[in-house]
Amino acid sequence: MESYEQRLKNIVNHLQPTNNGGIEMVDCSADLEVNTISSNSSIPKWNKQELSQYLESAPEHIRVAKKNLLELLKDPIFAPKYNMNVQEWRELTLQRAIKVIKAGAISLAEFNRDPMKYLVSLEMLNLCDPSLSVKLGVHFSLFGNAVLNLGTEKHHLKYIKDIDSWKLPGCFGMTELGHGSNVQGVETTATYDKNTEEFIINTPSDSAQKFWIGNAALHGQACSVFAQLYIDNVHYGVHVFVVPIRNPDGTIAQNVRIMDNGHKLGLQGVDNGRIWFDNKRIPRDNLLNKFGDVQKDGTYVSSIQSKGKRFGAMVAPLVGGRVLISTSALNVSKMALMIATRYAYSRRQFGSKGNEIRIIEYLTHQRRLFPMIASSVAFTFSVEKLKRLYCEPNKNSQNVKDVHIWSSGLKAVVSWMKTNILQLCRECCGGQGFSSFNQIALFKSDLEIDMTYEGDNHVLLQQVSRNLLVELQKGRYTLTSANHDSNIHSYDFQIQSLKWRESNLVQTLSSRIMAQLDQGRSLEQGWNTCLDVVTQLGKAFVDRITLEEFQAGIKNAPSSTKPVLELCRNLFFSWKVNEDLGYFLCHDGIATQTAQKVQDSINILCAEMLPIGLDLVNSFNVPEQFIHAPIAQSDYIQEFRYGLNRNY
Amino acid sequence: MESYEQRLKNIVNHLQPTNNGGIEMVDCSADLEVNTISSNSSIPKWNKQELSQYLESAPEHIRVAKKNLLELLKDPIFAPKYNMNVQEWRELTLQRAIKVIKAGAISLAEFNRDPMKYLVSLEMLNLCDPSLSVKLGVHFSLFGNAVLNLGTEKHHLKYIKDIDSWKLPGCFGMTELGHGSNVQGVETTATYDKNTEEFIINTPSDSAQKFWIGNAALHGQACSVFAQLYIDNVHYGVHVFVVPIRNPDGTIAQNVRIMDNGHKLGLQGVDNGRIWFDNKRIPRDNLLNKFGDVQKDGTYVSSIQSKGKRFGAMVAPLVGGRVLISTSALNVSKMALMIATRYAYSRRQFGSKGNEIRIIEYLTHQRRLFPMIASSVAFTFSVEKLKRLYCEPNKNSQNVKDVHIWSSGLKAVVSWMKTNILQLCRECCGGQGFSSFNQIALFKSDLEIDMTYEGDNHVLLQQVSRNLLVELQKGRYTLTSANHDSNIHSYDFQIQSLKWRESNLVQTLSSRIMAQLDQGRSLEQGWNTCLDVVTQLGKAFVDRITLEEFQAGIKNAPSSTKPVLELCRNLFFSWKVNEDLGYFLCHDGIATQTAQKVQDSINILCAEMLPIGLDLVNSFNVPEQFIHAPIAQSDYIQEFRYGLNRNY
């Protein structure tokens, strides 16, 4: 089969003879004259393969593993299929999950040995089918991870093999109907009975039912249950227990009740369910006891004295989920941009008959797609850095904190960016964006939840800002003043501007809270009145680290790719500042004339990108095999010819 | 059954004894202390029924018709049902449509006699099931409307009865695969054959296939086809023809081929299809000949000389669709806000055990919901005005133009606002927002398309701006200077600010285009380089007319409701200006100190709204019977008790 570029070149040659010997993949010169902004990009050609590999930045052994997984995902069972009811979705997802597991493509052992490889595998599964990656993610990254990192050797010996073979499908029993973000407030109890050496797991009220538990409605047999530990009426805080919820034959275990969460906006293939425990007795050994244990006689022992720190250890497994959401959201953003951009360079509308204008030539289209393409490139570097931080084998406490802060911030900002990008791409594709076959719509539904699960975005940004505030108060935060230069395309100007904004916000936050404390209010009360600044600050931090990582990435990039990466950096910066221009101007973070220059730069940078935008998205590190969308093919009209059925 | 308020009051009393005799529907006083912003709203109580009726503003006979329709919609066939494949969705939607038609609740005759009543009926059907309203809308508002307003008496006699009985289900064959926004570019041809006195309808290429045609995949028997008319090789532009596409027995008509558009993001109940015509012959009488006719001998006659104006007449039926989208989007926005706000006032998270904080008390929650509540109230008045303009029986050319401009602008801005509101509400409800049972998610999917169909929003805003530019150039546009006062809560300040922005933008647009013309470019080329300003200007116009209509509405409002309406106006204004603060500051439309005041006002106005936000959404004019969402009930925990099945 011809490559995408070859086919596109052929059809373009057919539609409109090029006048430069066919060097340009798409020759827009005839149409570009309509756009009075300069059509000649100053950006020289780059090697697409080289840029794609650089954006991926994975070591060789991971590339090999990825290639093998991609081969597996060519099996017909993974072909797109949409027209199903909930039962059919779940069954297909189960069969897909089993196929992946049986092929040994993903496992808890792997997760432990080579987290980067595990992460990349889940990323690929997510591009193939988000229900599949979530179902496997619940089983391995949440349930399995809890066993691995909250349990001890006895649990590893007992469970890991069965987890890796899917003999023991698992659930992660954290969220309750009444408690989502506030995990410390879960109501489920685990009361130790020293006579029988058992824990009694109980759901004291309907608000304590475990809610939204993936794999619970149908397939899960064990559940890592978060519950308040009581021994002799003394409360020891939240601990995690392995509780059987189904028997090996699939029937529901004694003293357990399960209901179905039912139909959802997306992720129909994941069987989310609700669980009640009726004084369900489990052996003492089922406590995952790495950070806190109960001896036979009921004596509580823990290496961590602080209840708060112990709780922190219990929820640490969630960090991996946030890393995965960041990277998956970024991948899906890129894929949607590839689809919408290809369509925008081939779809024509209005203009002279027989020579209608490509829709990418409309400024409204450029201003929607190009800043998002630039942003996707920018976030590639901060997200890759996060992945590396997360996968580092021997983390010190600073590393652990960095991973927490970076994963919280990036998960929030990138998942929102992804939602925005999917929305813009959907609209840029018009009715085609509404068709399931063009993929954007379904990613929109499936990935919608990522802004509120594994930590609500607003709550996560509080983690980021709280940390910055502490740094400031401990004198460890370096304040940056505003830069009143006007060289908006210089990195020094750009980074100083973003650092100034962050500095200014953290100082505002600090002084507003101080004022509240002076009025006799508690820190918590003061904090609540500042949540607008808290959110702004969290986002500002993420923008700043992203620009820094982007610049570091440009420094190390293959030289042919530097000009296009710099163009992306400039557009990313201008777009971000323009979005927040009121703040910059109100607080004298930028001169009015410079602000005007930033605004004006967007159209100019878009014009720079116009001749190369298609090449750029085709340099993205997203495997072509996942792009089924008819509008992303070289000749979308042909994809809709009579008789070509697409009834899946 | 107890009313919602009564049940809420009971449960609130149960949860937490009120200390003021239960006058407040929800007594937040205990919790409000946590929020250090003043918890005492200066807004006095209003009569909810009175506000609700005022927001509805329908005359008595329409209220009666609406009440009857609401009774009909209590039939079990209209009960929510989600877990279906495409085939089941379509069958259910068909049966619902037939039920509505058989009850005489909607008809083309009605549409002709009392468009306001027709409009309100479709609004209610949309709240019940968007697939249902779209399926009926295609049949009546598009196909039927074409017959009514593009056809003449012979067509009315022949078709209207069968349209009203669903004996002749209709499609609207305008969009083609290759041509959406550019209707004048459709490729389908209608060639007159004077020998047989027939038109030959033909699809010359795959890009000319009729695409996204509602009712085409399964049920449509006739289609109003937009095609280029040719007589003796002379081209007469786009005309509309009634073409049979299925026989009465449901088989596909000769020389017609149909395929299915398949699975979509939403509106699964609408059977969108694709149609090809293979030199399909239809009688001469099938031309809808009100604005252009072909005599037996092939002589073309038309009362409208200009091809452009004739085309305008042909696409005039689309205006009604834009009015309906505006009003439906607004209704759905309100419904989503009702659901999310009720949940926000009952859901608790964090804070001291047993007395956790209601999530509405978090500033991040208030800043997402309250400005949108205020905006929904604001747009009620401009959308109601549009409805009245549209339904006016004897319109002069100025009226027709106003309806065109207002419907274009409001359709774009309100559908975007709705998308934003659904997104915010989804996120504010966390995981619950992802459940189909809570309705927000499904409205998100079903109404997603409204930003790009019946006129792409960006294209529609061009209509608005083009008109303003013409007004300016003809000297009919009154320019407004900036107001450098700082009384941000005075209407005079507010309207002058919005008028200034509009003025400034229209002048910028004009001068930028002039500069392009001076450089020898065509008007079209110049226009394309200014599409960023064009979009901004279109939105600025809609904000301005909305503020004006809102103020007129406040003037006429029942006096008890004025304070809360004024609060909404102030918040609407501050929010809108804050969103665009960079523009105001860059162009000296507001003093820096005033800008700061606008920013600060948002938290203050949110604090004002906190004690009354729940009352306010409960005063919205959305029938309670459509709100099934468990989280919108008085005790959402109870709605999820064990054993209460929700398996639809």
Automatic annotation (TrEMBL), chains A, B:
Keywords attached to this entry: FAD, Fatty acid metabolism, Flavoprotein, Lipid metabolism, Oxidoreductase, Peroxisome
Acyl-CoA oxidase/dehydrogenase middle domain sequence ranges: 171-279
BP terms from Gene Ontology: fatty acid beta-oxidation using acyl-CoA oxidase
GO molecular function, one term: acyl-CoA oxidase activity
Acyl-CoA oxidase C-alpha1 domain mapped to chain residues: 318-469
Entry superkingdom: Eukaryota
Acyl-CoA oxidase C-terminal domain span: 494-635
Classification via InterPro entries: ACOX_C_alpha1, Acyl-CoA_ox_N, Acyl-CoA_Oxase/DH_mid-dom, Acyl-CoA_Oxase/DH_mid-dom_sf, Acyl-CoA_oxidase, Acyl-CoA_oxidase_C, AcylCo_DH-like_C, AcylCoA_DH/oxidase_NM_dom_sf
Chain sites annotated for binding FAD: T175, G214
Keyword Protease: no
Family: Belongs to the acyl-CoA oxidase family.
Protein name according to UniProt: Acyl-coenzyme A oxidase
Organism: Dictyostelium purpureum
